[in-house]
Amino acid sequence: MFLEIREPIDTLVTYRRGAPHPLLRAFRWKDRRYDVTQTNLVHPKRVGDVVHLCYAVSCGSDHFDIRFDPARHQWRLEAIDTSR
Amino acid sequence: MHLDMDSYFASIEQQANPALRGKAIGITGRPTEKSIVVASSRESKRYGVKAGMTAWEAKKLCPDLLLVPGHGIRYREITKQFLKILETFTPIIEVFSVDEVFMNVTQEANRHGGPVPMACAIKDVFRTSLGECITATIGIASSKTFAKLIASQNKPDGIGFLDPEELPELLETTPVAKVCGIGPRIEKRLHRMGVRTLAELGETPENLLRREFGIYGRFLKAVGCGYDPHPVSPFTQVSDVKSIGHSRSLRPDLRPLESALLVLRGLCDRVGWRMRRAGYVGRTVHCWYRSLSLTQFGGKQTTLPLPTDDGHDIYLACLDVLNRMPSRPEEVSKIGVSVSQLQEKAKTPIPLFAADRRRGRLNDAIDIVRARFGEASIRTADVLLFKPIPDHVSGFTMTQDEWED
């Protein structure tokens, strides 16, 4: 089950030429750094005239849902998997 | 070519969350036993869990079943992504459902070395672009019906190719019910006529089938003879809109008629917004409900003197319809509205009275706000009386954060 968090986070991102979306490398949440080991799924989500990017990522055995709002340049931790 | 995504919703959830991979999961509205399983993973299908089962029934068959709340927007976006991939292979794509498409690859297959190498290439691109869990089964045949039939025989993650020389054998061995479009009722009637396989269907005189099934008999005869008269119609060719409507199943606290009317208000607002975006106005408003016992359907329609695209006018017409009904239920489990007799707004005269023109300007302003900040950004106050609907519950596409934003 996922627990909703909805908190802004600091991220380390790579904008690679030709990639369809920015690649999330790591993020900091509650003074802890999480290195993204795998990006499982990325899909857009339209909110008004802004298209957010929703990331489902794994950091080792932890799984997170993260959202990028390109209009505000804001990354937000949406939810964490608590089933582990 | 027919492409069917394998255990689509469940595969997407397993792709998004590796902790779910290899586990028996069922996608539900809410992860409670009162919910319905709308899709199941390959692992849970082995236990007999099927879409449409109640969660407790599914749990009985598979006690380790994990109930996962669905994400409608996620599935819709992944569908858009795979359609975009398919468009790089062929422009003639017919969207059959959220996870099924038909493609006409007659012209393009040679570029890839034939239809089977093309199918392999599609699956490779899916694997790299969508993820290893999201797989598809592809059926290749000379017509849609047989491509779908071949795909269903090669699930999951397979490729089926029907050689024209193998067609007579397939017709001999395939029961009629295996074909898409022949359901249990038609099957029963065919059995009564002594028709059990496709070959027998092909041998049945067309006039007999037409007498029994009307115009559909023609399709049945064609399928029995090994072809499908329906071509692949591309999804980019939009047919004329006949009506625009919305309906919603109500959760228990919204079932009393007073609360249901608030939902109806929201639905009318949404119908109006969609009509304005599509550039239509309509005259006939149809309002309907389903009673709590699920047995009684009530509904009537009214025709307005002037066409409208205003949610408030549509709502007033619905109230008028409900007031004219001989008996109004105290509680309803589903309510809906649709507007028909549509015509293009550009071809209708500008309202004569200033008040009507003011209403139009107000709607224009609301639409600008919605287009920029989302559908839930501006609403009438009475709709705010009920709580926002969570993302995973079907109906409104309003999500919690859209609500907050």
Describe what this molecule looks like in 3D.
- The complex is a heterodimer of chains A (84) and B (405).
- By secondary structure, chain A is mainly β.
- In chain A, 0% of the residues lie in helices and 70% in strands.
- Chain A has strands spanning 2-8, 10-14, 23-29, 32-35, 38-47, 50-59, 62-69, 74-81.
- The radius of gyration of chain A is 12 Å and the shape is globular.
- Chain B is α+β, with helices and mostly antiparallel strands and 405 residues long.
- Among the domains of chain B are: 2-72, 3-Layer(aba) Sandwich (MutS, DNA mismatch repair protein, domain I), CATH 3.40.1170; 167-224, DNA polymerase, domain 1; 244-366, DNA polymerase, Y-family, little finger domain (Dna Ligase, domain 1).
- In chain B, 40% of the residues lie in helices and 19% in strands.
- Chain B has helices spanning 8-16, 42-45, 55-61, 72-87, 115-130, 144-152, 167-173, 184-192, 198-203, 206-213, 216-224, 257-278, 311-323, 354-373, 400-404, and strands at residues 2-5, 25-28, 37-40, 66-69, 93-97, 100-103, 136-140, 159-161, 244-249, 280-291, 297-308, 332-344.
- In chain B, the strands form three sheets. A five-stranded mixed sheet of chain B has the order 5-6-1-7-8. A four-stranded antiparallel sheet of chain B has the order 9-12-10-11, covered by helices on one side. A three-stranded mixed sheet of chain B has the order 3-2-4.
- In chain B, strand 5 and strand 6 (100-103) form a beta hairpin.
- The radius of gyration of chain B is 24 Å and the shape is globular.
- At the A-B interface, strand 5 and strand 6 of A face helix 1, helix 4 and helix 14 of B.
